[in-house]
Amino acid sequence: MKIEKKEVEYVAHLARLEFQAGEMDKFTSQMNDILIYMDKLSEVNTEGVIPLSSGIAMANAFRDDGIRDSLSYDQAMANAPEVRENCFIVPKVVE
């Protein structure tokens, strides 16, 4: 085994986690499986592979900055639940 129950208990204590006896055995087994898999991944030849910060291609979704007409008063207030003196009226949330 790569990790023992004592080590999982220690890490759980540091993280202020409390587990039942059966859960501790389950988590120890799961952590062991993860560490064994990590060892298996370490065996893979990654020479010539460019490091990535994400597994999917990322591109900015920003539009070009340009001057556009703003909403008219009627368009801006169209979805307001209530309007009074050119202002949105919303329910009070703070006493």
Task: Give an overview of the whole structure.
- The chain has 95 residues and is mainly alpha-helical.
- The protein has a domain at 5-42.
- 39% of the residues lie in helices and 4% in strands.
- The protein has a two-stranded antiparallel ribbon.
- The longest helix is centred in the first third of the chain and has 22 residues, at 21-42.
- The mean pLDDT is 88.
Please give a quick description of this structure.
With 95 residues, the chain is mainly alpha-helical. Helix content is 39%, strand content 4%.
Q: What is the fold's blueprint, element by element?
A:
Elements: H1 5-14, H2 21-42, H3 73-77, E1 83-84, E2 87-88
Antiparallel strand pairs: 1-2
Count of DSSP strands: 2
Oligomeric form: single chain
Supply the number of helical segments: 3
Strand content: under 5%
The helical percent reads 25-40%
Average pLDDT value?
88
Strand order, main sheet: write it out. 1-2
CA-to-CA gap between the ends? 58 Å
What's the alpha carbon Rg, rounded to whole Å?
28 Å
Q: Regions with pLDDT < 50 over 5+ consecutive residues?
A: none
Q: What summary fits the major beta sheet?
A: 2 strands, antiparallel
What letter string, H or E per element, gives the SSE order?
Answer: HHHEE
Name the structural class.
Answer: mainly alpha
> What sort of overall outline do the alpha carbons produce when their principal axes are compared?
elongated
